[in-house]
Each structure stands twice: as C-alpha cells, then as structure tokens.
Specification:
- By secondary structure, the protein is of the alpha+beta class.
- The chain is built from four helices and ten strands; from the N terminus they run H-H-E-E-E-E-E-E-H-E-E-H-E-E.
- The protein has helices at residues 5-33, 36-50, 95-99, 131-144, and strands at 53-55, 59-62, 67-72, 75-78, 82-85, 88-93, 105-111, 114-118, 152-163, 169-180.
- The longest helix has 29 residues, at 5-33.
- 6% of the residues are buried.
C-alpha cells in the first residue's frame, strides 16, 4: 500500500510532534523540581523525616534507560551524630513496583562521600572507635539494605571518620564499597 501525498506530509509532522513531546516529558520534570519552591519543600520534608538538615544542589531526572534521579552535592547534618556529604548520588528505581505504587530502589551510586560519625551526643561507652563497634556499624548498614531488594549500592572514592567521646579518631580514606544482593 502506497502512502498518499497527504500522509507523506503528515508523517514528518507527527514524528516531530512525537519527538517534541518526548523532550518535554523528560525535560519539564527536571526544570520543575529544580525550582526553589519544590526543592525547599523536598528538603524540609526529608529533614523533618530524619530529624536533621538536608541540603542539595541540582537534581537531574532521567527516564531512559532506567528511571533515575541524580542529586548533586547532597549534605546531611544530624546534630551530634553524623555529618555526610557527597559529590553526587545516583538513585535508580525499579519500574514494575513503581507502576504499582511502591518505590523500590534498583541501584544507588554514591560518588566521593565524606561521612563524619561522632559520639559527642552519646554516652561514652556507647561508641568508641574500636573494631567491634565498626563491625556493629557495618552490620547495621547491611541490615538497612533490605530497603534495596535485588539491588546494588556502590560507594566510590569515599572517606569516613569515626570520632570517640575521648577525642580518639579512626579515619578511612579512599573507601570503595560495593554491596550486591
């Protein structure tokens, strides 16, 4: 079946409209979420949920090939407990659970994190930079990975400092970790 001259004219217009719609679907959410009002609302909500302060730079959203969000320069402050910052965090979500209304992470990549844990707000015996405490902290972190079923978490180029109540410190540099389930 040959295309009519009218169909031949409408085909490029329909393709251009489809491409424009695709660009708008990908580009508009990123522009909207980086406006001051939505960003401040997200920071307030997350800060209230964890009992601290969260700040971040630009957010990039992508749909292809996965549904992902990249957050530039995130910073977390929990007074007397932890201060954490990173160059960038990439979080990708699983599509099928998302369509059912459940948010499940597929993978997370944290680039150049700096994490400072302190015991200044805790009783002195609660935490000290000792190998047994480090193993306890790693076990707790591994337990929290249940929120990332069948996923991978990657930390590259990181630094972590554990500070005890007596002023002693233990520092890990050039930390590269990968958790796979």
């Amino acid at each position: 079946m040959a295309l009519t001259s009218r169909a031949k004219r409408l085909l490029p217009a329909a393709a251009a409209l489809f491409c424009l719609l695709g660009v708008l679907v990908v580009w508009l959410p990123t522009v909207w979420i980086n406006r001051p009002e939505p960003r401040d609302a997200i920071q307030r909500y997350l800060g209230t949920a964890i009992g601290g302060t969260i700040t971040f730079g630009r957010i990039k959203l992508s749909i292809f090939p996965k549904i992902c969000a990249s957050v530039e320069h995130p910073r977390l402050d929990l007074p007397t407990q932890v201060t954490a910052r990173a160059a960038e965090i990439d979080l990708c979500l699983q599509l099928l659970p998302l369509l059912r209304g459940r948010v499940l992470a597929d993978s997370a990549h944290i680039r150049f994190p700096e994490i400072d844990l302190t015991a200044s707000g805790m009783p002195a015996p609660a935490f000290r930079p000792h190998p047994a405490d480090i193993l306890r902290l790693l076990a707790e972190a591994a337990g929290r990975l249940k929120h990332f079923p069948e996923s991978s978490i990657e930390v590259s180029g990181g630094r972590m400092t554990l500070s005890g109540a007596g002023g002693s410190r233990l520092e890990f540099r050039r930390m590269n970790l990968r958790w796979f389930r």
